[in-house]
Amino acid sequence: MHAKTPPFGALDGLTVIDVTVMLAGPYASMMLADQGARVIKIEPPGGEDARRVGPYLGGALPPEQGGYGAYFASINRNKDSVVIDLKQEAGKDVLRRLAAKADVLIDNYRGGVMERLGLSYESLAEANPRLVYAALRGFGDRRSGESPYAAWPAYDPVSQAMGGIMGITGATAGGPPTKIGPGVGDIMPAMFLAFGIAAACWRAQRTGRGQFLDIAMVDGVLAVCERIVFQYSATGIAPKPEGSGHPLLCPFGLFPAKDGFVSLGIPKDEFWAPFVRLMDRPELAGDPRYATNAARLERRDEVNALIGAWTAARTKAELAAAFGGKIPFGPVLQADDIFADPHFAARTMLAEVEMPGADRPLTVANTPLRLSETPGGVRRRAPLTGEDTDKVLAEFGFDTGEIARLRESGAVG
Question: Which of 26, 40, 87, 274 stands the most exposed, by the fewest C-beta atoms within 10 Å?
Fold first, then answer.
């Protein structure tokens, strides 16, 4: 008797209808797909606009032939694609039939769009009471409390700005704010959405009742910036950009090297003595001007300058040899460094996916989750536009004649 093959991911058996576009919504559904959920991406005729965002691998199928660029490939792996024209009543009926058998539906349109299409949570839940309907909008959904900004469109830099993270991020302490490089204004709320979906599905599994889940992008960013809330509450002082340091710890942050930058920190005083010995400055270990974090904070500029002068005379490799494994330390890595670093290879964090038509695969960031029994991760490429329409509709009970008529009318494609 053969042992039963374990499921690919912990969410095996969960069916998600993904009516999302661009980054935030697709990132949330990607997280679910990476853990084994069946994610069915609903696209308009011609495919989602994100397909047309580069860069492109040489020879890869262009969007007008159903293909996609690297942006789309990264966050839409492990999903099916079904093309439905939601401007047609027949297309809306197709979505209703899919939602009636699904566990989750995710949308990240502006508030009111799904209602105007006749696809509100209430109407879909009437047909499927166990449905978890997850909405991700810039300023949330009116069902949870209508924001005065509810009608404002929001993208990553807007939620970064209004959620508080830009206000404490800048090249110099007290200087002007700056945008964080990756789209954290989309991705952090997406992570909260994926967590919320898992929580709501756990309840639905036990009670048979789904619910409406609402994440505002700006709320997700603020939740990650929790420190500014308690700091302002306790002191009445609004935190400002912190440069590359930390407002409560010293030394802690970025320091120059001969060939780039390194990050190091002393989160506890007991690290200070071994740190300065490694710098060949043992006399600083017991010096009361530097021995405690409070004392070092009073001399922050002096301490940082002293350490920076020492690190700047050495390469990142030399600093890694001196500090690695002894104090909290890490070189600042760029993408080419990450591709060459043995850590990311050992952790399988760089996954290759096929790009249809291209002469080589594309490398994308894998999931960081490591589950011993249900590993999850990247298992297949992103779909071509409408690649799975017929297969999915058949699995949801549409017969061959229905599918042919829907295709003929343009309701699906």
Answer: 87
